[in-house]
Amino acid sequence: xxxxRLTRAGLLKKVLESIRDLVTDANFDCAATGCSLQAxxxxxxxxxxxxxxxxxxxxxxxxxxxxxxxxxxxxARMLRCASDDDTVTINADDAQxxxxxxxxxxxxITSENLEIPExxxxxIVKMPxxxxxxxxxxxxxxxxxxxxxxxxxxxQFFTRGDIRTANIFCRKTTPVAKEKExxxxxxxxxxxxxxxxxxxxxxxxxxPLAKQVTxxxxxxxxxxxxxxxxxxxxxxxxxxxxxxx
Amino acid sequence: GSKQPMITSFFGKV
Lengths: 245, 14
Known about the structure:
The complex is a heterodimer.
Chain A: E1 2-6, H1 9-19, E2 25-31, E3 34-40, E4 46-52, E5 59-62, E6 66-71, H2 72-79, E7 88-92, E8 98-99, E9 104-105, E10 123-128, H3 129-140, E11 145-150, E12 154-160, E13 165-171, E14 184-187, E15 191-196, H4 197-203, E16 212-217, E17 223-229, E18 233-239, E19 243-244
Antiparallel strand pairs in A: 1-5, 1-7, 2-3, 2-6, 3-4, 4-18, 8-9, 10-14, 10-16, 11-12, 11-15, 12-13, 16-17, 17-18
Chain B: E1 2-3
């Protein structure tokens, strides 16, 4: 038996709006430890990992591990019926293949879960989520790839289009900067990755969920773009960098 | 030109 009740449907709506373009169908794996969702995009170049912890719910009951295959667009459409501060309840009996109240059809999705090594990163940048979103959007009008370079001074975004290039440098802020403007950098050594902008732009749909975004990079490894939600936990997006031929 | 590898070549299947 699974019974989840969330006082603020708005949060779940924002979560779904931020992932529904990247992934169409996915399994919500619910256990006593929380609800998680891990899925790759159709081109298998990007991946997202979502964790919703029990203490983010008003009521969380999960007697045994249950995996609910859902079409995220349908779930987002269904949740549109709820206003942001409505309470949303998700029930699922073990045997049934639907979740009640909206009778949404569940699907059997064979998803191959991937093991994400908890490796260290050469550079970790924390910056305002809205700034990162605006940079990705602006650069997306110029080129389709961005070279993100991190040094101890700051983080640089460079893109080259067929008619012009753009180079945005965000300097690390001094420790006294206010939280919402702070740009902090933890770095073992300078690192630079070339990434497809359309995926990064898709990741920034999660901007409404968090004030800050954490960007973790290691040479030759997928970049991690993480939005921490105050009580629910996190959404992490992974994107494989492009490699020169 | 640049190549775009897949994520499955970085993260093993569980």
